[in-house]
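ingest -> fold -> write
write: protein_1
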Amino acid sequence: MAAWSVTAFGGKPLAQLEEEEPERFGFDKEVLAEEVRKAGWKTLNGKGATEFGIASTAARMISCIFHDEKQFSRHPPIWTENTEKQVSMPACL
């Protein structure tokens, strides 16, 4: 699940950018979500493994921390028993 409501570029919400420049920022979010869901299988079928993607993500996160880049990263949702909802919070690396 993508959190489109909090997606922003240069501090501007994606929804606002879509209204201002629909030809540039408008896209079918459901189609993109489906492509992302299938991307892991494409990698697996092409390379025979997916750990390269995991390793490159880990390397990028380590680089952000090491160089104090202050990049924001979204973590996978976590199920919380007390609210019975999934929660995902951005983290500054």
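write: protein_2
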Amino acid sequence: MLNIFEFGADWCSGCRILKPIVEEAVKGYDDVYLKQINVDEDDDDLCEKYKVMSLPTLVFEDTSIGFIRKIVGTVPKEIIKDVINIYKELKYGELPRSVKESTSL
């Protein structure tokens, strides 16, 4: 299973922009879990673990492999989907042609 940790804060304008983008990007992936972490309110163990220094930050982690990728800043939905699709291709093998054609990374 792929975990995506979205680190943000209420006062962060980039975080407010990224939040709906990430939510839309993960739709349709049954094996992707999104956890949104407010750095001002939530436990900071994950911030320390992934060395989160700037907001917003996305961390991609496989439950069996561990850390995969970190993205800092606001990014378009396509980049998030590309990371998910590349992960799935590497972990599970060939992707359907329609997914491969939409991958820009």
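write: annotation protein_2
The mean pLDDT is 89.
Residues 59 and 70 are 4 Å apart (CA to CA).
pipeline exit 0
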